[in-house]
Fold this protein.
Amino acid sequence: MDRATVSLIVLAAGQGTRMNSDLPKVLHPLGAAPMLHHALRAGQSLEPERVVVVAGHGAEAVAKAARAFDESIEVVVQAEQLGTAHAVAQAAPLLADAPGEAVVLYGDTPFIRPETLERMLDLRSRHAVVVLGFEAADPGRYGRLVTQGEELDRIVEWKDATDEERAISLCNSGVICAEAGLLFALVSDVGNANAAGEYYLTDVVALARARGLSAGVAICDEAETLGVNTRAQLAAAEAEFQKRARTAALEDGVTLTAPDTVFFALDTFVGRDAIVGPNVVFGPGVTVESGAEIRAFCHLEGCHISRGATVGPFARLRPGAELAEDVHVGNFVEIKNAVLDEGVKVGHLTYLGDAHVGEHTNIGAGTVTCNYDGVMKHRTEIGAHAFIGSDTMLVAPVTVGAHAMTASGSVITENVPAEALALGRARQVTKPGMATRLMEMFRAAKAAKKKKETP
Ligand code: UD1
Ligand code: CA
């Protein structure tokens, strides 16, 4: 099917006063990503030619977050928030000559589904302007959609609505699409003679109708239009996001032992037939291949886990942790910026940071890469088929060759050649009978002390 050429305009200039926060509203985290990324992701499914984010409050931080999502995103600053039409008008200098459709999304409305946006574009074959509406259980202060059969006549904002209009339950989500040139032409005709003294984007419907053009409504589920204005709504949005992510994972063929205890990020990818145990938290940037197993109570971010690997229980994988196939990472292990080649085993109580471990190497319990000297980070290189004895301190920068061994309890400060055994610990001294004599001494001392104290 031929795709329409689309430009996306994402409104994100508002302060979000009711969040009671120094952080711009659209940067509050939802699914371990800035809220703004959710709308961008939905919009991205339309494969837009251009994406323009309208920023205002905290514009610099908003621009940074937008570019972190996609470097090609353009940002315009709306210095004063004079209304949604005024916000869209800020994109006009960039998009006035853009061919095809313009779709307006809100940065604080994270759950619009790609399919819904597709349906809106499809409806454009019948209407010049298409608005996304929903039947509200409690219409509250949403803008109301005044329809005549198939036609959308106008949108009336709650503040300006009569009692009769307020009785309408079909509400405006805010999402709107039209041919880009037309949208900007209509927007430039919008005035601010209304109860709020704002330039309402919603006025473009009546303006289009006045030009003899048709407007229509695509209807979606109310849950999709959920907007975030308060911390309570942010918490509700997080719950909704997690619910959807869990359902999606199950449908994708992932086993979740206790779905309600697993927390996903917006960009989490888990392959088919992977198993995720209870109480696992995915931070941003995690990919888990098919058939891997994440056991209970793991915390993962910025890492990749390959097919057949097992992680946890109680493991922490931090950014740059790369586990090849059949790697085993066990309990109380932390891995940061380290590549573990195929079949590596790190069973217990270990920290590996800034390291590379060759295939089939075994890392004993309590091993630590001492990667930080207080000023700089240093690397540890461990070859294939090596055996790192329990409680080895690897003082980086240091290299352990292939098939080499370190003795338990060693502090390794010098490179270990391939196939060598390195012992870096004090030699043991054993004194026959000394334990018994020592205990007798201690008991005698205790008895003498007691005798002195009792009169
Ligand atoms: C808007 C709609 C209303 C709809 C509701 C759905 C208008 C006039 N009203 O009302 O019909 O039912 O959304 O949630 O459009 N923004 C800017 N710059 C501005 C003003 C707003 O970027 O100058 C952004 C906000 O940050 C927000 C979005 O646009 O992301 C919506 O603005 P908001 O003030 O929340 O509009 P509502 O009054 O809720
Ligand atoms: Ca709002």
Summary: The CA atoms of residues 186 and 208 lie 7 Å apart. The chain has ten helices and 33 strands.
